[in-house]
Amino acid sequence: QGQLLESGGGSVQAGGSLRLSCVASGLVASNYCMAWSRQVPGKEREWVSSIRPDGSTVYADSVKGRFTISRDKASNTVYLQLNSLKPEDTAMYYCAAAGWRGFRLGCTAQYNYWGQGTQVTVSS
How far apart are CA 77 and CA 84, in angstroms? Predict the structure, then answer.
């Protein structure tokens, strides 16, 4: 039922910025834990950031202070603002949705939906 579509990736120089978008259909993004993850060929997927239905956010240490996750309920879209990009940020970025178990239990460990990804390439 649900689908996620990422966009906004591209090629930038180190220090540059990008804004990634994840448009959800068939599901209400604000009812899920929405996450951004990234993956480089040959490596495991790395979780980057999440936003919960209560609006709280969390970030991986590697991107803390540089990336910002947000959402727009009206457009059912989740964003990831990438600032001060580094070559090591180069990866395919994926949007995903996980179940919300309430503020006491948080998000489920498994994701229900994944997008196809959008490529981010940062040159030195």
Answer: 23
Q: Can you tell me whether residue 94 is helix, strand or coil?
A: strand
pLDDT at 1: 79
Give the pLDDT band (50/70/90) at residue 103: confident
Token pair in block for residue 114: 């994944």
Q: What average pLDDT does the chain have?
A: 96
- Length of the chain in residues, anyone? 124
Residue partners of 55: CB distance under 8 A and separation at least 6: none
Within 13 A of 26's CA, how many CA atoms are on the CB side? 10
Examine the pLDDT at 118 and tell me if it is beyond 90. Answer: yes
CA distance 86 to 81: 14
Which residues share a beta bridge with 107? 100
Which whole-number Å values give the CA distances from 111 to 84, 98, 118, in the listed order?
A: 28, 4, 18
The residue type at 111: Y
Query: What whole-number distance in Å separates Cα of residue 62 and Cα of residue 37?
Result: 12
Sign of CA dihedral 43, 116, 77, 54: negative
